[in-house]
Amino acid sequence: MQTEYNALLKNQAWKLVKRPKDKNIIGSKWVLCTKYNADGSIALRKARLVAKGFAQIPDVDYQETFAPVARPGSIRTVMAYCAENNLEIFQLDFIMAYANGDLDEEIFMEQADHFIYQGHPDYVYKLQRSLYGLKQAGRQWFCKLDEKLKSFGLNPLSSDKCVYKLKNSKGIEFSQNVKNGQITMSQSKYIENVLEKFNMQDAKTVKTPLDPNVKLTKEMCLKTEAEKAEMSLYPYRSLIGSLMYLAICTRPDICHTVSYLSQFNENPGMPHWTAAKRVLKYLKGTKNRGLTFRPTKKPLVGYAYADWASDITDRKSYSGCVLKFADGAISWESKKQHCVALSSTEAEYIALSECDKEIVYLRRFLNELYESVDETPTVVFSDSQAAQKLVQNPIFHSRTKHIDIRCHYIREVYERGEIKINYIPTDKMAADILTKTLTFQKHDNCSTIPLMKVTNRYQLSVQRSELKSFSSSSRPVSSPKSPLDRIFTIKREFL
């Protein structure tokens, strides 16, 4: 506590003033926490003084609160970009980040427990800097960081305001082979923590995240209040939330299963809970898997697939989309379609349309990174030749006139020359894993298709001395002459 308190004093976070009679005074509290390195070892234990932001009054103590965060797809795309161009990567952490933001409002806070000023116990803090717990803390830190990054010649991309590029030039583990340019993203320690959290660290492993012979329905949901009260003792939603983070960051192989299980969040039954625990058993046996990117000089490519009427409850189809760059998956989605498709062709057409929207975004993102415009159409693979012809043929007829207008956006993008649809056999369709529960052999085949490669980090054909791992505590590895070296002064300025 003393270390944190001294740091806040050094940062001039507040000044002590008499308690105003006509102002809102918010409370304060100490929060004890432990910070970990990427490998799970303890980095430090610390105490953090936070404001009780729930007592803030809108339009008095705060105005805007929104603060942007980087999209997971953007992070993966940058990793792929670095692998493709053989760039070295690093991470850094800002000490007391939120306490560096400037405040626009006049905010008063109670003195910190155990540090009451002698002789002035009724005085309060008038905050001069933002503080953890304030509703605007995240936004004020982003504004401060954005201002500093721009002063060093870094400009945010219009496609993602959290990704910056020089004008002249979260528990995710990153490793890079400097010699061959290969970059791997994984979350093995996070998986271990989740297993421990839900007391599954000693469970037996399974080969697939969901049993293909088990069909989960809403009929399995609980009906009586007594059953619901008993089921409330099981942290189903908490488990799904933990799995969701894995699914959106580094584990496309569980994406469909998590999406499928999440539809029972409001009223899960015991079969749903058992199925969710099975995902943990699968993760235990595959915890060292991760996404791998390597230089290929190949363009962005997409895969779109649909499983027609696969949901036995409402007969809606599931769409799967995955996009590949630098030999790795940078974006994927498993999603139930918004309407009932009347044919497999219609389901595949809708899946192509959903995939097309992500392609348009990523093309713009990559164009900004490379500072050039790629006029070459992005290839999208589909196993439906009928859906392919439907995109290429703008004529409406009796079988397609009912399709929602939003789905026809793909025709416009196709006519602009931004995409090209190619046929691929179903057994080579990587997006199949995002639409249905597969048997072990099919699941394993999809997981090891190069575009969605979840490579075991301990099977990489590199020497340990060649592998550089990066965590929040890693030191920068760029050359002192590199333009990136200028960024490190930011950290020193904020200390």
Automatic annotation (TrEMBL):
<dbReference type="GO" id="GO:0071897">
    <property type="term" value="P:DNA biosynthetic process"/>
</dbReference>
<dbReference type="InterPro" id="IPR013103">
    <property type="entry name" value="RVT_2"/>
</dbReference>
<protein>
    <submittedName>
        <fullName>Retrovirus-related Pol polyprotein from transposon TNT 1-94</fullName>
    </submittedName>
</protein>
<feature type="domain" description="Reverse transcriptase Ty1/copia-type">
    <location>
        <begin position="11"/>
        <end position="164"/>
    </location>
</feature>
<dbReference type="Pfam" id="PF07727">
    <property type="entry name" value="RVT_2"/>
</dbReference>
<dbReference type="InterPro" id="IPR043502">
    <property type="entry name" value="DNA/RNA_pol_sf"/>
</dbReference>
